[in-house]
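Key idea: predict the complex, not the pieces.
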Amino acid sequence: MTCWETIQAYGLRSIGIGENLLPKSDFTICQQFTLIGSGMIWNLYFGVLALVFGFFLANAVALARAGRNPWVRKPADWFVFVFRGSPLFIQFFLAYEALVLLPKEFTLFGVEISTSWTTRAWAGALLVLFLNTAAYSAEIFHGALKSIPKGDLEAAEAYGLTGWKKFIRIEWPTMLRLGWPAYTNEAIFLFHATTLVYFSGFPAFAQKGDALYYANYFADKTFNPFIPYPIVAFYFILLTLLVTFVYGRVNRHLNRHLPSNTRSKIRLRPNLIR
Amino acid sequence: MFAACADPKAIDGLTWGLCYLTSAKHVDFYWSFLTVLLLLAITAPAALGMGFMGATAARSHIAPVSWLGKVYIWMVRGVPDIIFFLFFVIALDQAIEYLKNLAVCDGGVWPWQGLEFRVCPEAKVPLAKSSAFWHQAYGFMLAVVTFAIVFGAFVANVIFGAMQAVPRAQLETAEAYGMSRAQVFRRILVPQMWVYALPGLGNLWMILIKATPLLFLLGVKDIVYYARELGGSKTQAYEYPHGDWRLWYFLGLLVFYLVFTRVSEIGIGKLTARLSHGQATSGGEALRKAAA
Amino acid sequence: MKRLLLATALAALSGAAFAQDVVRLGTEGAYPPYNFINDAGEVAGFEREFGDELCKRADLSCEWVTNEWDSIIPNLQSGNYDVIIAGMSITDEREEVIDFSQGYLRPASSAYLAASADADLMSGPVAAQTATIQAAFVAENGMQVVEYATPEETVAAVKNGEAVAVLADKDYLVPIAAESGGALVLLEKQESIGDGVGLGFRDSDDALREKFDAAIKSMKCDGTLDAMITKAEYFGPDTDLDWGDAGKEGC
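Result:
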């Protein structure tokens, strides 16, 4: 098969489109690049969706932690503690074991609800990643919320902005701005963490997996780890650069009102992995 | 372990539970917690050492050395750590055996023959004749080295930042006193850098704790391995048959990690407080206010 | 001088050396009755007894090592152990990378285990262990395969409804079906895949393979192998013992 034919056969294999059987012999570099690249579709899927949904939950939890009502604050504190304090690997295993115990079909108020889809990776693993990134991001946003300069808040009140108006026009944008560099790191590490999905409890159906799943397949079949793993590394470096670029643009937008000498550039500091 | 457990099929209830939890495989499980703690105890200083070297290299005035340091720091951040773990262990194992091959085998035959990696029997590390303990210890050592290299890059980043954060005035004063570059580094920069490095290092310790389940992927029989092995349902071929108990074993692991994390958090908080005494930082200021 | 220092330093890494020839036997440890790890933490099962007997006959000192199924062949290639004794079927695909001894178990049928006797194999995924002949069979025959790392997880998948059925060696599934109290049943349909079970060796290890072959032959000839296989705790008295070509001629 020429390289172009290989790409057509395996380019979308990770979502089930294309050649059914994976190559068993005579492996070519083109095959490895293509299959591993097609696996990146899953990494992108998990990363993007977990980040987008997690962003909203993170904001809610960060506000809950800053609230005065202990009935709201304590559950938020515990949520962040459990998801930050335990390894993601263990969270995946536990979630899978717990989800398989759910009754497959049950009737609630006359409506039949089926839960078999929850144990599939596209749902179950996404749920775990979503909760995990929400917890880490909530911690970041909560810290940012606490470091909003007092002067800003007093000025807002002097202008007559109170309650919701003050929050949405002053507190929330400032919180995002202050927390954005750390949140960028969090996003990068979330994308890295998506490689753990098919190594923990969730199985790969019909050999549809992520980039690392295919890299492992090739490493096992060719007994040579020196090709597939650097290929995955290469794809992830590209992904990291892309995420850094996108988040950098958002950072510029959030800091646009500041005089140029006080604008903070994002400096990549790794602070969180799972 | 106990005399009452000699015939597991004849007992039930609490006795069965007790005998089950003290069977030899379960005792191995409990010992594996120590494996994890041992890994942490060895990796933390090793990573600190690697990180220190990496940061010093990155700050060097010699361009290639500085380049090497910076590439080391940057490379590990761009790539998921699990890939390093999977790749590095095999590569390191083959590299060590290749070196030994050059030293002790005749002729230095190229070991990578087709699909096999073949070296003469004297070059195998550990030797085939060595006991199981050495094989396990070697596997563990490979894991430690891999962890140290990967986390060393993160530590290097933190220490690099901390070194940059030491006020230049301190270093200039030292130079004004006539100290050589090495003396400035040893006597002024390094001791002052720790306060700035501590939050980042504390964070990395927490991250290291949470990376320990990856040991299981490296073939080390750690707590995740035993949880899966013990939790799976067992037929009558085994002495203690039972259903699928993996959920409970994983809940146990979750509790272990949460407790460990909490204890570490408290410990690091106390350490930070001690190091912040008398410092001109907000932490030090907070301590002074609290004391007043 | 430098080579000597290097050699000494590296030799120090490799630990104590003993005078005998130690052969390391690699097994999975998760597949009763072939091999499993008993509650005392030791390798047990038919292959444990069989392997120990072979080593005695070949006058070798043997050590048992467990390894995950996924990496059992690559780790043989890298030299972590010298023999694979893990219920591994002889297949052409595997023959390309390793050498097999003569078969010591006839090809066992593979059976399907499902939650009910009329399960439709096309209606959902069929579970199998990664990198087994059963997984390849499921994938090649139009069913949707879902692979798990350990045999136990494949059965758990059927129990909790993840998969419609699991395809595995019949000998592994029979006790599970029996002890499930009717929750899991073997389907009538069976498959015959693979060419018997053999020991795996590196391609370059002909001498070792011949020693083990001779030991297996001697066990077949004097009937000890047949007696071991038919033990109740292993494969039972009804097992097919007709060795045919892999056989008993020349005893």
